[in-house]
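Ticket 4471: requesting a sanity check on a complex prediction with NAP. Repro inputs:
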Amino acid sequence: MLPFARVTIIGLGLIGSSIARAVQATMPTVRITGHDADADVRERVRQLGFCDDVTDTAGASVVDADLVILCVPVGAMGAVGAEIADDLPADAIVSDVGSSKESVLTALRAVLPSATIIPAHPVAGTENSGPDAGFATLFNGRWCIVTPPEGSEPAAAERIAEFWRRIGANVDVMDPKHHDLVLAVTSHLPHLIAYTIVGTASDMEEVTQSEVIKYSAGGFRDFTRIAASDPTMWRDVFLNNKDAVLEMLQRFTEDLTALQRAIRWGDGDTLFELFTRTRAVRRSIIEQGQDDAKPDFGRSH
Amino acid sequence: MLPFARVTIIGLGLIGSSIARAVQATMPTVRITGHDADADVRERVRQLGFCDDVTDTAGASVVDADLVILCVPVGAMGAVGAEIADDLPADAIVSDVGSSKESVLTALRAVLPSATIIPAHPVAGTENSGPDAGFATLFNGRWCIVTPPEGSEPAAAERIAEFWRRIGANVDVMDPKHHDLVLAVTSHLPHLIAYTIVGTASDMEEVTQSEVIKYSAGGFRDFTRIAASDPTMWRDVFLNNKDAVLEMLQRFTEDLTALQRAIRWGDGDTLFELFTRTRAVRRSIIEQGQDDAKPDFGRSH
Ligand SMILES: NC(=O)c1ccc[n+]([C@@H]2O[C@H](COP(=O)([O-])OP(=O)(O)OC[C@H]3O[C@@H](n4cnc5c(N)ncnc54)[C@H](OP(=O)(O)O)[C@@H]3O)[C@@H](O)[C@H]2O)c1
Ligand SMILES: NC(=O)c1ccc[n+]([C@@H]2O[C@H](COP(=O)([O-])OP(=O)(O)OC[C@H]3O[C@@H](n4cnc5c(N)ncnc54)[C@H](OP(=O)(O)O)[C@@H]3O)[C@@H](O)[C@H]2O)c1
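Returned structure tokens:
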């Protein structure tokens, strides 16, 4: 049996449109309703055809739903929750895909006090955004973390888990606070570092912008990919997972200071020892199917 | 006319073996002699067949050469130079592919005081090493920076430049000091940051190693690729380009501190402004053919 029959997706960008396409591909009988605050996006989604219906208001999109997934930046979750509050069917489950979970849960609870809320976060994406960027296989083999609030009904969380499995993801369950700590390391800190280094490189006086671009294949270009991610989405992530991000940043800075000292004092053994350890992490990621084994991510040469 | 007729490559790993393969593919009449300190590597190279001859000593490999390219870690350049000093023909040009240039030039000059030395650095590579990792198209469309020492013969630098163009690279000429500053930004700092963050993530107590690996598709896995690069090579780079790396690290740390403050004080505008600027850098890199336009580096999903 399908976990849901009438799914509403609010926010039809990379993640929202990928979910819609994946549902269409794997559960073709499910009826998909979509809404986006941006009229141009709604128009484009009507052309692309991965929703059965696109509504002009958030409220109208949920009237008939048994699942509502919010796929907007985390800072907008509360506002969208408020917009659907009056029209949300009592037995619908509200979920989301936000990259931070504690703040989203708090925001949604405040505006939807009696709704069943089961947040989730698919750990998958690209640097692109908008409805054209999505694709049905985005979640294949990636992990989706479901973070049921304390006291929520296990059956509701299981339906959300089953939904994600159907569209290709592996599912893990975690409490929201731990999610935010884990993702601070595996996603938020990497993005912050990438944004920083790309900023640093663009602000140099002695090295021109054109040199930075020409010689970027030395390693720098890797960082520019994630530093090309959506500014609104990422601003919201940092503001909404502040404590965990600052905590991770603190540790990173300490480790960087230790390496700086090793370089300054010519301590090659410390460098060599770390560089050997980090290799093993890459190997595990490839062995567990979380990255391509091909050299250079399989870039064409 | 071909720039060289008898090329010797010392160090037959990723870069050395890629050069040999590229020469074979683009200048098939050139005779290629190879040497590597590691007997297993020599044996493997004999099987792979991209050298016409593989010698057991460095000296024996250069007796007949008009070009000798040193493709060993930058910390080994001086020792290899000393090994070939007695056998190097007077009219041969000595070049190298080291990732730092001032220290290599100093080391080679000390042991080969009367040789014509024209260092170069192809800004191309993958995270793999060894003779099996190389391929003939590695340098296609990438930049090779030639750093002729002051007072050297322009004709010699031009022959080196022509050699690199023949095997697919674009060539730029720079003085060694400026090279070291530019590459500190576009390559050395990115590697240092990547090694650090992978180290930080592996040393967490609250987040398990298995969690870091499972959810690495959130961004972290991108960093593990370059943090899987050869430890010896990278130890040597940091020890040999110390000043420029420490200078760049200092700026990076300042910028990171500013972002940390913006997060702490909830200053979303500063974050948004930076994240918008960094997007433009990515666009230029793609427009100038220095990275794949495909989302997520073209990883298969
Ligand atoms: N990108 C990733 O890699 C990734 C991965 C996992 C989870 N996530 C999470 O997924 C969510 C969506 O990210 P995305 O990458 O899909 O972003 P996206 O491509 O920018 O899509 C977000 C869409 O939501 C719309 N929107 C913004 N505010 C809205 C509102 N109040 N009501 C209705 N629609 C609104 C946006 O319209 P306009 O932009 O035109 O205003 C846009 O079309 C975020 O919470 C993010 O944290 C992202
Ligand atoms: N990898 C890159 O992305 C890249 C890009 C541009 C430039 N470079 C530069 O290219 C050079 C080579 O790097 P690579 O990536 O090709 O490394 P690699 O794959 O590890 O190859 C280096 C080879 O040199 C051998 N070697 C070490 N010391 C030697 C010595 N004293 N005499 C003779 N052979 C010796 C090594 O043998 P063992 O390891 O078995 O001892 C190994 O086979 C370095 O200077 C590096 O900075 C690298």
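Notes from triage: The two ends of chain B are 46 Å apart (CA to CA). Leaving this open until the requester confirms.
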